[in-house]
Amino acid sequence: MRPFHRREFLTLAGLAATAVSCGTASGRAGVPASTIRYQGWAGVVTPAELAEDLGYLDGLTLKWVGNTTSGPQDIQSAAAGDTDFGGAFNGAVVRMAAAKAPVKAVISYYGVDKKRFSGFYVRADSPVRTARDLLGKKVAMNTLGGHSEAMLDTYLKREGLGTGELGQVERIALPPVNTEQALRQGRIEVAVLSDILRDKALEHGGIRALFDDHRLLGTFSAGTYVMSDRYLDQHPRAARAFITGVGRALDWSRRTPREEVVERMVRIVRRRDRSEDTEPLRYWRSYGVPEAGGRIVPRELSMWSRWLEQRGDIKPGRVRISDMYTNEFNRSPARPARPDRPARGREGAAERAYARARDGAPVRARHSSGS
After folding, report:
1. Strand pairing of 138-141 and 118-123?
2. Sign of the CA dihedral 6, 9, 13, 18?
3. 8 Å CB contact between 104 and 39
4. Which fold has domain 118-218+352-359?
5. Residue 369 and residue 371: Cα distance in Å, rounded?
6. How confident is the model at residue 221 (pLDDT cuts 50, 70, 90)?
7. Which of 145, 259, 316, 330 is deepest in the core (most CB within 10 A)?
8. Max CA distance (Å), the chain
9. Rounded CA gap, 37 and 41, in Å?
């Protein structure tokens, strides 16, 4: 899912004021309680769409109202009542909470694991091998102020760079489809690549990973669906059915062979007949959500709150993590441990690194000389 641009990020405060003054969920006039309005992504099957196809929504029907342009735009639509849920990077959700928008995060829907991650890649012959080597270099990512920039800042700090040195690493926004070419042509020194674009670039050869967000922080959820407070108050049964169904679909995608998941996604896209390319689905590996049923873990919001405070984007103490999310409506089955993560009480290196990142302690990332 696309992280948000800094300019998009700054529109959330204005959206919050609009949502408060006009009231949310106002656009539901004439819409049956059993209908959930949403925005999609071209060529993508979201967890919500998968849940509907699996029959997990307990009688609810999804109504597609168009495709979104970004995570922030998607959650803005939910806050304004134009849709009934929206999803975005957790940093955008924290920012919206800081703007006092009347919404709550209700379930995680994408994340980072050993199958789904973003890597920071250099050319194989590049002299860049450490964080300090990045001073004065260009790092290209799809947007600024979002997930990738947060990962870059975290990596640089872990490797001992001071706050004043972070600005010496140039961050550039490039369309993902152009990033690999820019790297190979030498226009940039580092390219952030993920999903199909990462896999195709690795197939082409000649690049190596400097680090990736999974090596940096382990497995974690990175984005959540939000619903307006008014919708949750007025339609608790529908909210419960929807959130629980999405959680069940996430669990199904983890325990089902990848080939079967991909084939179902291809059928879904072909059936909805929106002139979409199904080839990217062949590279799908995981939604990356580790918690049972997509339940939200507080630290997966607090880490972004801390980052935004350090950047000066929100004031310290502006948000209370416990107020911005709820697992109350999620009735999907629980399980004792997370996949790709050790059980609580027997934490491994990735989990310890994640905990230290949350607390702002300096921890060194693991490096890779290859992919």
Report:
1. unpaired
2. positive
3. no
4. D-Maltodextrin-Binding Protein; domain 2 (3.40.190)
5. 7
6. very high
7. 145
8. 61
9. 14
> Tokens 């405070």 sit at which residue?
309
Give the residue carrying structure tokens 């291809």: 266
Domain ranges of the chain: 6-114+223-330, 118-218+352-359
CA separation for the pair 152, 90 (Å, rounded): 16
Distance CA 305, CA 301 (A): 6
Is 70 exceeded by the pLDDT of residue 269? yes
Domains 6-114+223-330 and 118-218+352-359 are alike in CATH topology: yes
CA angle 69, 72, 78 (to 5 degrees): 95
Q: Which tokens hold the place of 211?
A: 């680090």
Structure tokens at 247: 């959680």
Task: Check if the beta carbon of residue 190 is closer than 8 Å to that of residue 121.
Answer: yes
Structure tokens at 147: 């997930």
Q: Does domain 6-114+223-330 have CATH number 3.20.170.30?
A: no
- β-partners of residue 89 are 223
Structure tokens at 155: 């990596």
Instruction: Give the pLDDT confidence score for residue 169 in this predicted structure.
Output: 98
Question: Which residue in the block uniquely carries the two structure tokens 């994408």?
Answer: 110
Could you tell me what percent of the chain has a pLDDT over 90? 74
Average pLDDT value over all residues in the chain: 86
* The pair of three-digit structure tokens given for residue 356, joined into one six-digit string: 């230290």
Helix (H, G, I), strand (E, B) or coil at 231: helix
